[in-house]
Structure prediction request, 325 residues.
Amino acid sequence: MDSVDSDKMQIGENKFVSKRAILSHLKTYNIYYEGQALQLRQREEEGELIIDGLLNVFWGVRRLIKLQMQDEKEPGRPHPSLTSQSAETDISTDKNHETNQTSIEVTAADNQSKDSLVEEKEEATLSQRNHDGMQEASHSDPLLRIRSDVGGRRIGGRRLGIRRFNRHRCSFNGHFYNHKTAVFTPAFGSVTNVRVNSCMTTTQVLRVLLNKFKIENSPDEFTLYLVHTSGERHQLKPTDHPLAVRILQGPCEQVSKIFLMETDQVEEVTYDVAQYIKFELPVLQSFITKLQEEEEREILKLKRRYTYMQRIIKKYMQSLADKTT
Prediction:
């Protein structure tokens, strides 16, 4: 049993495919994407074949999605050193204390009053600079320095200028987070990619994809669909392995694509239905007319059949009644 399982690769719940078949498709896949980032790698761990790489996913959502305002866990920022370049001149007007003391102890009331004076003077300076269109003030004047978005930090009575660290988030084709566009709908058919492996299920791939873009929506709202150019559409089960499904379907995305869509907004489309989708409306109407005519013929046929059977049964019942009498 173990030898049989070692020759197969799982692509879903109770779904297996031979390693030879998957490796053959993988070879074709990598030849198609030769020299591109979408090429996949393979390895074996304890006899299990694992394939990993980038998987293209197309956006097919209709509703709004919301980006997180900030990351759940932000790495600790290093404390700025007390150097002449990073530390500002002491707010205190007593220059003798500044040269002799390494730290100045002030009361909370004094701190608040000094902070308010500095803020008022900074705001006055900012408004005057905006009005005159002047460039940023030189670093030599601490009162004309623009406060960073994260604010200053007071250490030992000194206000330190802290440089804001910009977090590089992934974007939807250049769409980065900001307060005005934090809630939006990705363009239908726009493509993104996520790094996965062949052991990851549909649920896991969805969580990785939503976490990559810091999306607040629950993964339960979405699912992955395999959409063919013909219009055929199949929902991937939560236990399916999307990367393995992609490899078996072939590399050409003009034939089939993996879409992220809402779970409750999309229905599966079978091949029998999909083959009629591309026709024009008059042609589809003629199909419906023919199907209705065929349905009526079948109904008449069934009615004649059951009428005949009813007559035979009544005749037999009548013969039994005559024999008893």
Q: What stands out?
A: The mean pLDDT is 74. DSSP finds eight helices and twelve strands in the chain. Helices lie at 2-6, 19-32, 95-100, 108-132, 202-212, 242-249, 271-277, 281-324. The first strand starts at residue 8 and ends at 12.
